[in-house]
Design goal:
By secondary structure, the protein is an alpha+beta fold. It has helices at about 20-40, 50-75, 80-100, 105-115, 115-120, 125-140, 145-175, 190-205, 215-225, 230-240, 255-270, 275-280, 290-325, 330-345, 350, 360-375, 460-470; strands at about 175-180, 210, 375-380, 390-395, 400-410, 420-425, 430, 435, 440-445. A 5-stranded mixed sheet has the order 3-4-5-9-6. The chain has a two-stranded antiparallel ribbon with strand order 1-2. Strands 7-8 form a two-stranded antiparallel sheet. Helix 1 runs antiparallel to helix 2, helix 1 (about 20-40) runs parallel beside helix 3 and helix 9 crosses helix 14 (about 330-345). The longest helix has about 35 residues, at about 290-325.
């Protein structure tokens, strides 16, 4: 039986990828790349720009293997897949750093930058060369051999810690649940949200209302539930995830992980001559200095504090006069904030939801980009996905498909929280002259549909969807 990660596919065959495929494929592709790159750099008969194109093809082949695995680890996490991916993360980090410290590869890019060929390149091509030279320096190309070795060790360990941090947060999120059998404990929560909580319980063969720390469960409790003690309980469980306190104190604790991350980031920055990791971070960003960033944040805080203080005082006064609440705690803010909005403006997130059924929001968003960019987006059912909720879409102009994307909207077990966009395939011209279309993953964690009814989004979710689609 073949390994799908080693085979050529226009798009990832998600249903065929198994945990046991991951490590052999990544190890083989890294070894193949290292061998071919060494041969390529030693071959003086190949022109420099052609070498770069071949290097790009090798890197893209490796990306075709690790991109779907990394994505699956985020959206359908299992212990077996996690172990496989986590064992590959340091290997990929070490491989990337070894390329960044390869003197012959650096010499190849520098020879192009220093030659007349550079001026004949397009603006984007010159930028790619400039960025590559910058990244060589940020990979420690100028360091002595001993410090280069330490730099590789630090990078490898940072990769391990990053995965460990995410795993702990996901495990802590999934560990906490609370089954409510008396609906009076959930008084104030709208029926649409109660239906979702009943559905979540039924999906786990339970009767009642299942609360979890996933946002579609957490937010309705914090915003609408009159039961203050329940709000406090779920709030404390949510904000103490993966820490040394809370209901699972120490079990998924990220404290030591964070201390080690901070120490290694500082060491990495110091090896490259930066005073701190913030300076290193800005080396690839638009801000010109850490002072500029701090000044911006301080000015923002100064300008915001007065209005924020006035809003908070108004909220406290409202809670005192309308509800007799005298000690406002963090788990009260969303609840009383929503009540204040209802009283002052006769509107609430719940009132807006019927205007935002997910299919209508999606079609409206596609209409916006059609008008802005003259592109059409149509659903396709011919692309393999990792979950039945995932939909796939073609982006077309003048009847020609120019891009594709996966849309994974709803929260579920074993899926990292938050919302993000990531690359599945990058747009590039292959060595044979054909075009590889760009393909994106667009991931959110909204409330899922209940029964046959479409999911109803709140306004923040609509904004989030447009935001992530904008990245795509």
């Amino acid at each position: 039986m073949g390994n799908p990660l080693l085979e050529e596919h226009k798009l990832p065959p998600f249903q065929e990828i198994k945990p046991e495929h991951v490590v052999p494929a990544i190890e083989q592709l890294i070894a193949d790349n290292q061998e071919q790159i060494a041969g390529l750099l030693a071959n003086d008969s190949i022109p420099p720009l052609e070498k770069l194109q071949k290097l790009e093809s090798l890197e893209d082949r490796l990306r075709h293997a690790y991109s779907p695995v990394s994505h699956l680890n985020s959206v359908v996490n299992t212990p077996e897949l996690r172990d496989a991916w986590n064992s590959c993360r340091p290997k990929l980090s070490e491989y990337a750093t070894s390329l960044g410290q390869n003197p012959e590869l650096f010499k190849l890019y520098k020879s192009i930058a220093d030659s007349g060929v550079y001026n004949d390149l397009s603006k984007s091509q010159r930028k790619a060369i400039d960025n590559a030279l910058r990244d060589f320096r940020l990979s420690g190309i100028d360091l002595p051999a001993e410090e280069q070795a330490r730099f590789r060790e630090v990078g490898k360990r940072l990769s391990e810690l990053s995965g460990q941090f995410s795993d702990n947060v996901l495990d802590a999120t999934m560990a906490w649940t609370k089954l409510i059998t008396d609906s009076s404990d959930l008084k104030g929560i709208p029926e649409s949200d109660l239906a979702l909580l009943r559905q979540m319980a039924a999906q786990r063969d339970q009767e009642g209302y299942l609360l979890t720390l996933e946002f579609p469960s957490y937010l309705p409790v914090m915003t609408h539930c009159e039961n203050r003690e329940l709000r406090r309980e779920i709030y404390e469980a949510f904000v103490t995830r993966a820490s040394d306190t809370g209901p699972y104190a120490g079990k998924f604790d990220n404290t030591d992980t964070m201390y080690e991350l901070l120490a290694l980031r500082k060491e990495k920055a110091g090896l490259l001559g930066y005073a701190n990791f913030a300076e290193l971070s800005l080396a690839t960003k638009m801000a010109q200095s850490t002072d500029q960033v701090v000044e911006f944040l301080e000015e923002l805080a100064t300008r915001s504090k007065g209005a924020a203080t006035a809003d908070f005082e108004a909220l406290c006064e409202f809670a005192r006069t309308e509800y007799g609440a005298t000690d406002i705690e963090p788990w009260d803010l969303s609840y009383y904030g929503e009540r204040l909005k209802e009283k002052q403006y006769s509107i609430s997130d719940e009132m807006l939801k019927p205007y935002f059924p997910a299919p209508r929001v999606i079609s409206g968003m596609f209409e916006v980009v059609r008008r802005l960019y003259d592109i059409n987006i149509t659903e396709t059912h011919e692309i393999a996905t990792w979950h039945p909720d995932v939909t796939t879409w073609n982006v077309s102009r003048n009847g020609e498909v120019i891009a594709r994307f996966y849309l994974d909207l709803y929260a579920r077990q074993h899926k990292q929280g938050g919302a993000w966009m990531d690359e599945c395939r990058v747009r590039r011209i292959r060595e044979d002259g054909t075009l590889q279309l760009p393909v994106a993953y667009l991931t959110c964690n909204f409330s899922a549909p209940v029964g046959d009814k479409p999911a109803l989004l709140n306004h923040d979710e609509v904004v989030t969807l447009f935001h992530e689609f904008g990245h795509g």
